[in-house]
Amino acid sequence: xxxxxAFLLGVRALxxxxxxxxxxxxxxxxxxxxxxxxxxxAFLMSSLVFxxxxxxxxxxxxxxxxPALLMVGAVGLINLRHALYSASVAPALAALxxxxxxLLSYLLTDEAYAAAIPHLLAQPRSxxxxxxxxxxxxxxxxxxxxxxxxxxxxxxxxxGDLGLDFALPLTFISIxxxxxDSRARLVAAxxxxxxxxxxxxxxxxxxxxxxALAGLAAGALIGEKK
Length: 226
Prior knowledge:
The protein has 226 residues and is mainly α. Helices cover 75% and strands 0% of the residues. The protein folds into 2 domains: 3-161, no CATH class; 180-226.
């Protein structure tokens, strides 16, 4: 596998997920403007933060006039799942130069992880596997910038009650379902989903991280029993 073919493989694996990402990017742009964020700042946030759920939460907190410390803490908590992604891909990327690790850490999103992880875990693993993650991450980044720009440009024309926020859960469903290919992963998904619903009332989205830990523990337990 060449570098270019690996990069294109990552792009192709990511493209179907843009169907869910694009509406969410548009609604983020609309919500950001309605929360009082200037258009340029709303668009630049997609490059600086580059995390859809965190950007959406941050826009809502800014609109509600939340304290800066609360905004930083809430966004940090909702992004803790990326530490789990990093731990998962670290063994496959351990030999890469630091510049590659910095680039891929920036591009490591939910969708890019889902698109690339089957190839990163494959044995034998291609020495160009990191280009697959790069391709998936770049495709997601480009799509997210365009969707955000569309939302910012249309923000003054669209009503705020369109209900496009359904795009976020649909995006995560499209990520998870193809990965549930074993008993351990099925149990992990069921436990995590149940825990997320039960812990939805916890402050600052901490229930999401608690649910992720519960799912990991359940999946590991089932895996050990095999």
